[in-house]
UniProtKB/TrEMBL annotation, chains A, B:
Keywords: Amino-acid biosynthesis, Methionine biosynthesis, NADP, Oxidoreductase, Threonine biosynthesis. This is Homoserine dehydrogenase. It comes from Methylorubrum populi (strain ATCC BAA-705 / NCIMB 13946 / BJ001). NADP(+) binds at residues 10-17. The lineage of its organism: Bacteria, Pseudomonadati, Pseudomonadota, Alphaproteobacteria, Hyphomicrobiales. InterPro entries: ACT-like_dom_sf (IPR045865), ACT_dom (IPR002912), Asp/hSer_DH_NAD-bd (IPR005106), HDH (IPR016204), HDH_cat (IPR001342), HDH_CS (IPR019811), NAD(P)-bd_dom_sf (IPR036291). Belongs to the homoserine dehydrogenase family. Coiled coil: none annotated. PROSITE patterns: ACT, HOMOSER_DHGENASE.
Length: 440, 440
């Protein structure tokens, strides 16, 4: 290797431009930390004429990222193209095949092809670094892989998608609907025109799958993640959560159980006093439960050009030190296939909001079905509107009213069974809302 | 180097015993992560006969830690003796002098001799690792030195002493006095028989000095830290903080200003909704403000055998990978002497609790003196006891009553000047209480 570490950056959006600026601005400090001069020598992007606010003169321009990846002019290929297939995948494979280190922010690529790419990196003795792929500027990959090397991890969970957390924070603070907050998020650039990937939880699932592999030494299994998004959350759920001492967050949770490893993404009630409940707006957070440290929480920016670039540059600095760690904390051959656990087997507390016909005996009917399914109720809240209470003091009209239950630990299968029975009994005016509770 | 990494552990208290157990229990995972077998070959402690609940058979016992440090049987010297001088210092110097890597949990040693020891490590090309010295099991050294390598850091602050946070948490939750909570902390083993080092802020100052060096690339300057402990905090301060939307935490704060680097340890009002305000009991937390990531917060266990051992083993794993980073993030020769900033120059918000004679015009007198010193008041709360209000409705008795002010940003010099003037006016029945406010 030469004394200078030469970078080739593919993808010059906000993150790529930030990396260019950061490497230049922090040049002296990075050399002091790593003993090497770090410099960008070549770049690739779709549109050569676009003004990105950075000086590209003196850099070799490649129209084709694969050609950049293979180029003899670079030591490290920085992949900021995005997407699990196509150019990003071809270029990363080309770079690893040519014995270049790879630094990437691409969670989709890793979630779908992580093990295969890690194997390539291992065969060539190069680094495949991806700190930026999960939770943006939070050094969570480093914390789990290196900082907790002495620990057995039992659970990892976190707020991994800023768009969802922004929407839920605003819904809670201002009593707005999901649709209204999504529109604002789109106007502010926090959400895409097609927001499905974010709001339905798939982005969180990709990130969670990466964390799971690292935390448990298993092959990435993005398809094994049970995924539920936030589009069905209603303002009433946030109000009820508040009254009951919770906030609602979209969490990704990986949890070791006797049956295997649960991987699940869903709106979650978290106790208001927990650290993760304080995380508002586009901020991300990850909590790790581990045998030696107990609980470790990291909170920081989950997205944004500068924050993501911070993670990319941290990886580059590690590469500059000549450090090649096993991609997922251990050699690929040691990674085991994860035992999936069906959500039906998940055991935890549940928030259940039913919309029942306001008639005598409904609460008793619901409670009976829950008891039959072996579910213990921690609290039950029946709320009639002031209007209904005055116009129909006896509750004879059968108007739809909310009935909220908080359960003690129960299996998801039993909860679904009880709800089906309640439905068959004709007690429900609408489909029930089910939100899992995650305790510290 | 041999394929096996041989450890010598000096100090077999709860941390040392935990390290022994962890290295054995995680042997396979550590080998997978580092490519090397990691094993403890020799130990040293004061009392050979004590039962530590770990098997020491097969380990070479040294009565003298310095002899262990120099021994040809070890590659890494793990220093868990403690203390800034004496055996710990002699042994670490001996180990570095003999070209051994050193892993230590000793914040006092680093705070007082960090630069000299780092220079020795650098000359020999060995690692001097100290993750366990600050914030126990939280990988904060790694996060700052490696995870934020691309960032310019403007402020680092945190709850770095579990004893103080435990005492303040209990005072707040139960309305108890400092003395009562200290006694409980001592009974639970959270505080020493002589608690001065913890409760007066010196322990926090040592840890802060280490973080400052790392964050700003300056030589450690433990003597430059302005230190104030928590022994003067009264239950009334916690009540008032609560009413005003704050909690009181003992923070260590390092802040870059135009004049240099402020290093200060003091009881601090933090907004109740901030992440750091949620940190209760013996838990620690560190927040870093940096240009690219904005704000990054890490929360976790600050002490305890297993948590501290977790940090020690993480350092050992890094050493096993053959990784030698500059101790404070860059070569010692590049560390600059920090420009100290006097506390008088500190600018921020203040909580000021005066005990004034309950007479007409006192509040006006106080407000006038504040205005004369160019201090703007954000809020003012005068609270008369119910008893005083009924027995003396006109406030003619001149009974001592609390008068609490929250200021906008002001310099400490001006605040002290105003308080002196108020004292000279004869308005005060007791010495004033002054608590700095730290905003996110």
């Amino acid at each position: 290797m030469t004394q200078t570490l030469r970078l080739g950056i593919a993808g010059l959006g906000t993150v790529g431009a930030s990396v260019l600026r950061m490497v230049a601005r922090r040049a002296e400090a990075l050399t002091a930390a790593t003993g090497r001069t770090i410099t960008v020598t070549a770049v690739s992007a779709r549109d050569r004429s676009r003004d990105r606010g950075v000086d590209l003169s003196g850099l070799h321009w490649f129209d084709d990222p694969v050609a950049l990846a293979r180029s003899g002019e670079i030591d490290v290929f920085v992949e900021l193209v995005g997407g699990s297939e196509g150019a990003a995948k071809a270029a990363v494979e080309a770079a690893l095949g040519a014995g270049k280190h790879v630094v990437t922010a691409n969670k989709a690529l890793l979630a779908h092809h992580g093990a295969a790419l890690a194997r390539m990196a291992e065969e060539r003795g190069v680094a495949l670094a991806y700190e930026a792929s999960v939770a943006g500027g939070i050094p969570v990959i480093k914390a789990i892989r290196e900082g907790l090397a002495g620990n057995d991890i039992s659970r990892v969970y976190g707020i991994l998608n800023g768009t969802c957390n922004y929407i839920l924070s605003r819904m809670e603070a201002e009593g707005l609907t999901f649709e209204a907050c999504l529109k604002d998020a789109q106007a502010l650039g926090y959400a895409e025109a097609d927001p499905t990937f974010d709001v339905e939880g798939f982005d969180t699932a990709h990130k969670l799958a990466i964390l799971t592999s690292l935390a448990y030494g298993v092959e990435i299994d993005a398809e094994g993640v049970s995924v539920e998004g936030i589009s069905a959350i209603q303002p009433l759920d946030l109000t009820m959560a508040d009254e009951l001492g919770y906030r609602i967050k979209l969490l990704g949770v990986a949890q070791a159980t006797d049956e295997g490893i649960e991987q699940r993404v869903h709106p979650t009630m978290v106790p208001k006093a927990s650290a993760i409940a304080q995380v508002m707006g586009v901020t991300n957070a990850v909590t790790v439960d581990a045998d030696a440290v107990g609980e470790l929480t990291l909170i920081g920016p989950g997205a944004g050009g500068a924050a993501t670039a911070s993670a990319v540059v941290a990886d580059i600095a590690d590469v500059a030190l000549g450090l090649v760690r096993p991609t997922f904390g251990q050699p690929v051959a040691r990674l085991t296939a994860p035992r999936r656990v069906e959500m039906q087997r998940h055991e935890g507390g549940y928030y259940i909001r039913l919309t029942v016909h306001d008639r005598t005996g409904v609460a008793a009917g619901v409670a009976t079905r829950m008891a039959e399914a072996n579910i213990s109720i921690e609290s039950i809240v029946q709320r009639r509107s002031a209007k209904a209470a005055s116009s129909d003091p006896q509750g004879l009209s059968g108007q739809p009213v909310p009935l909220v239950l908080i359960t003690y630990a129960a299996t998801e299968g039993n909860v679904r069974e009880a709800l089906a029975a309640i439905g068959r009994d004709g007690l429900l005016a609408e489909a029930p809302q089910l939100i899992r509770i995650e305790r510290e």
